[in-house]
Write a structure and sequence with these properties.
Strand order of the largest sheet of chain A: 1-5-4-3-2
Distance between the termini of chain A: 72 Å
Helix content of chain A: 55-70%
Order of helices and strands of chain A: HEHHEEEEHHHHH
Largest sheet of chain A: 5 strands, mixed
Number of helices of chain A: 8
Low-confidence stretches of chain A: 1-9
Radius of gyration of chain A: 35 Å
Oligomer: homopentamer
């Protein structure tokens, strides 16, 4: 891929692997700082933008694949000079989509404009991811109110984890955009400022949306908890009503089951009717009391 | 609508559709930045205010309709120059109410004053929406204390969602007002400053109110949860008292139902009275113990 | 009241009604900004302090009456010039207490010093209100630990609502004090600075106290919730112990109530003693197991 | 005490009572601001540090006595000039410990150095109090995990209240230290700066510790709540297992207690063995189902 | 150890004990501030970085040993001058790992570069600790969803305590890095700035990770609580269904156990079949009602 891209623009070096010796050559040629080369090669760096003497160094993170409740980020390292652009992608990540728009415009634009195109593509991919989350959370809210189950709970927390992850990247994106505006020095032409400010604005809006989604998720979790509490309450009521219905009958039948003398109606022909009637009546009285005194 | 409004003031261009070619003509005529035109045409932009070289660009959001527990916002895009005003409304939203005051004053005022009148109308519509929420929350608080039900829970969270939405718009409004004061450059006359500061003050007060409403809603949710916990506790007590009343009778009647010899009072004529008396007495003792030792 | 006060100091205009035409006369005479006049006449404005060209405009809120769990605020509008003072009170609020100290000093002091006296009186009234809340919260904490009831819950949330309200006013008071120090321009003599700084300090301390009270209230609510959880747990234990005591007896008496042949001790003269002894023993064993394995 | 201390250093005035007329004399002599004198005499002031023209005014709060779960603060008022030091202590508080180190160094040091010694002693007393809290919280955490009781809950919230109190004082101490560094003007020699910065650093560390303790307390409270929830769950399980064991036996013995014809095994000599065997078997089946389908 | 290290670089003084008199000698020789010497000798100081006239003073904290759910920190005190480096380690802590990289580079580098190497090693040890926490939290999340037990709860809170501790140290590290950049004065060459900025960046990323882990832990705790609530709900349902199954049978068999006349089917040969059929039927009806009306 490096070569085909290099064909489009003489000064665009698109590396596929931060560990390739080509990067060392470029570091020598363009006086790239050794710490930046280390950053490219170490794993797990923060998204950031730093101005060096004659270039800007950026670590960007793009969303690679959105699976249910989980996202994974790919790293893209950029050195943006006045006359050159070096892009280095994670060897085990696809990055073509994010670079596509820049590749199309590649031959005719300055490195800084290409940087804008790449950042704008990345920001767009975040919007897609957030829309996706939004839909999922809507579904979850419906299912929580209908029937709270441990499975919905699990996907609820998967979404939460995803948002925590996304928020962290976006905060860094926002800070990087801010420091780009401050430190860009000679690399960014003033006429490009509104474009980078636009990216900054979009990162703010993304953060906004993530916060809103987090609030909605917390709402959904609260609804979940109160639904479970409600249902326990409901189950307890059913148990209590069942007991209320059964207990008077059990007590009375227990009494008439005793081998004692002198129980009333024992010898009466209507004994059964009278005693069963008494059971029904006492059950009715207890139910009426529960209702009357608002005990349930 | 564009034409009738244009009739009132020669330099007010009131477009009904951001996608109309008229906007491109105006963009050419007044040197509007391509990113701002894009903003008008893209969906889902943040409320904001930006100063360009010779005009101010604003995206405003007005409340279109307040339905129970849900609000929807319409976008209004404005280009405010020294000598011209371009307003572009969402094609599928009514915006006449928000523009009414400006239309009335249209022929005689400067664009910046018209901008103030429009912003003031929008802020007023927010106050109406907040008063509406306030009433709803009062109702909810009453119904939660009387009888907590899943339905009240649902409208509680609808209100919460609404406030999350509103808060987000208001934070942006506040920031836009602040950047208006900073970036207005040559567009706003100093004598208009107090007016825009007034809008800023109102946006602060609106945010204040939203925060207070959020606090109150959280209170209401806490009351809900504790009411459910209380009720479960209450139901458990009823069940326990019922069991307490029934169990001694059941045990004693069970014993006297056994086919064994040697049970006391079996042959006594007052057996029934004595045994039933024992049931009542033991039930009384258990109830007295529950009360005495504060077990319930 | 306007006239009697006006008699004390020629340049103090004490109006009882913001809608009186007198205010318009004064606005003309002292060049008061139309937005400030509007503020006086509109309802529901935020407490604030603003510096205009030749006067300070303040909206103050004083506590009118402290009823159990609820407070209501009265508005006081002030225009403080170098040589004049205009105070306008809510027509349906008593404000004499707040103005008393200023009235006493009225003839001899400058408008800015009178402003200080009024603000100091208002701040004092807040202290009284907070002390009142403090006592109420102490009572609530005691009653929550003794016996958590829905009534204590309700007054708990009433106190919370009151503090939310008070906090909001105090935040604005603090900001107003701060902007007074910044914008007072020619109106406040430097020798008055320590006095206004004192008011600012008091507003900080009040906010401090409100935060502490809020923390204490949240504590109290947490105690409430855990008390209810504890009591439910307690009730469950009682129910379980009751069942434990009764079930073995019920099972054994049930078995001996069956019309079957071959039950042991059926014919024994000590059958009853043996079987009842077995009941007591098995109940004892179950209770011992509950205790031994820490199941309750 | 005033006199003995005054003996050590001619210009150290150590008053025991802010209401003594001596303070008025000193106010006249050293031109102390009337608001500062008021502060000394009013109750309930915030800890603070203020620079006046020719002296520093400080209100310090030292811990008087640490009782279980409660602390009380004593006030110490200081006027620190270039050549004089006035210390005024709460009449009903012991303050000797806090002043001891300063008294020892008294004759040889400047007022500002004495101020440092006093502040350092006060900060040390806070460290003791925090260590004390730390131990208590450790104990509470152990007892909550072992056996959550309302008593541990109560001391948990006592600790929380204590930390709220302490945090409030420490925030003010930090702010006072900061304003000392800013406003000390001519009173503090530059060579004393590192010493006051040290006090500031210690106040930061104390706040740090209070925050950590608060986090730990909140943890402990969460453990408490989940322990209670766990125990309720446990009690419910015991009750359910008890019912499971008893109910099949009760149903079967109930059936065999009916006065009906045609029950199987009624006449069998092994009827009892068969029926009791059926009871045990059905109980076993239900228990096996509970376990098998993970219903408990 | 002091001597062997001293052998590598003439001006590196590596002390093993802050209480050794050697430190006093060095303090005299290099004019170290007495407060810094005190800091070295006192226990329990905050991690910090301070610039003195001719040196930088740092207190660093490195992770000594990571045991399950608990970490302990060792202190390292550094005086970094233009031409000398003094490192003082806690006498009862191993610190060799942290110093290793600096020892290797020792002979050839400036003190400030050695400081960077030490700080970088310390930061690396934090990353290891955080990865360790990450794995533990993943395990906990799995076990909470599978089977919430008090033991998982306990390790959950152990992890929380650990993160509270770590966060506190990292906040101080970040602040120390920031003040290093500000106050380093003549000690740090400008070409070292990117290196210290790198350490600062890493401390930010570490804080980021700790925040994310805390969020995840809180999630896990919420899952725990809702799992327990779910299980209690589940247990209640089982109990209610058991009661539902048993109660109709008990009531009917109780009725047929009474010694009354006139019960239907008493004399019928199919009495048993009919009555037991009625038991099964009524149980079925109650179960159907529970299901039909969504009572469980």
């Amino acid at each position: 891929m490096s070569h085909s891209l290099a064909g489009i623009l003489l000064t665009w070096y698109a590396l596929d692997d931060p560990n390739s010796p080509e990067l060392d050559d470029l570091a020598g040629k363009f006086q790239l700082h050794s710490l930046h080369i280390e950053d490219c090669r170490s794993n797990n760096e923060r998204l950031k933008a730093e101005g060096a003497e004659n270039y800007l160094f950026l670590i960007l993170k793009y969303i690679q694949a959105v699976q249910d409740g989980d996202i994974s980020f790919g790293n893209l390292f950029l050195f943006v000079g006045k006359e050159f652009l070096i892009t280095i992608r994670d060897p085990n990540c696809e990055s073509s989509e994010v670079l596509q728009r820049a590749v199309k415009a590649g031959g005719e634009e300055k490195p800084a404009k290409l940087l804008y195109l790449i950042m704008d593509s990345i920001v767009d991919s975040y919007f897609v991811s957030i829309d996706h989350s939004d839909d999922r959370i809507d579904d979850l809210q419906d299912s929580v109110l209908d029937r709270p189950s441990p499975e919905t709970l699990e996907s609820l927390f998967d979404q939460k984890r995803k948002l925590i992850e996304l928020r962290r990247v976006l905060v860094n994106l926002r800070d990087a955009c801010m420091s780009l505006q401050r430190e860009s020095g000679a690399i960014l032409d003033p006429e490009l400022y509104p474009f980078f400010r636009d990216v900054y604005d979009h990162s703010l809006r993304l953060l906004d949306s993530v916060e809103t989604l987090r609030d909605l998720l917390n709402n959904t979790f609260d609804v979940y908890l109160s639904s479970v509490a409600n249902r326990t309450n409901q189950v307890m009521k059913v148990l209590t009503v069942l007991s209320t219905v059964a207990l008077p009958a059990l007590v009375i039948s227990g009494i008439y089951g005793m081998n004692l003398k002198g129980l009333p109606f024992l010898e009466s022909d209507h004994g059964t009717e009278i005693v069963v009637g008494a059971m029904v009546a006492s059950t009715g009285v207890v139910l009426w009391m529960l209702k009357q005194f608002d005990w349930l």
